[in-house]
Design a protein that fits this description.
This protein is mainly β. The chain is built from no helices and 18 strands. The chain has a 4-stranded antiparallel beta sheet with strand order 4-5-6-7, with no helix packed on it. A 4-stranded antiparallel beta sheet has the order 8-9-10-11, with no helix packed on it. A 4-stranded antiparallel beta sheet has the order 12-13-14-15, with no helix packed on it.
Amino acid sequence: EFFLSINSQTEMQLRSTAEPDQVIATISAGSPQPGDHPLNEVAISDDGTLVAWVSFRGEIHVWSVGEEREIKTVATKIEASRDLLISPDNRYIMAFTSNAGIILDLQEDQTISLKGEGTMISAAFSPDSKSVAIGYGTSSVDLVPLQPGKQIKGMSLLKFSIDLDHLEFTADGDKIIAGSSNCLLAVLDLKM
């Protein structure tokens, strides 16, 4: 097991949880340009095999922990990302700003652009990695199926009157929990 230690704006280290002083690997985010902040968002896959980060310039980097090397870099227009997610099956990586998002399909080597109906606030992959829920500042949630090679079209699930702050699927994938910054919850039952 490991944890990620961010040493500077350009370097991260994977360290052993058993021996925190032991550096497993050092990940470099490259040379910053003047005024640059290369490490904008960082994500670790559920199984600990991938680390991804997005820079303020919009480059998404994917690093294999086992291979101790970068396996993918994709230049995007997602600058100053609001969030970065890795799907439970490690197939998809999603980054988004307030008004646009991108999903990288690592298996098919595809990039899928997303354009929302409002300000994107939060997102969550389903436990089976077959869909992603996207929450907007308009207090609405869309469910977007992830079907390789097909056009992505979301289905609007609900509009509600809480200030959406966070989305999460339940472990069985049957419900989406929407949380607000003012301590309210909404439960979206996908089986109804």
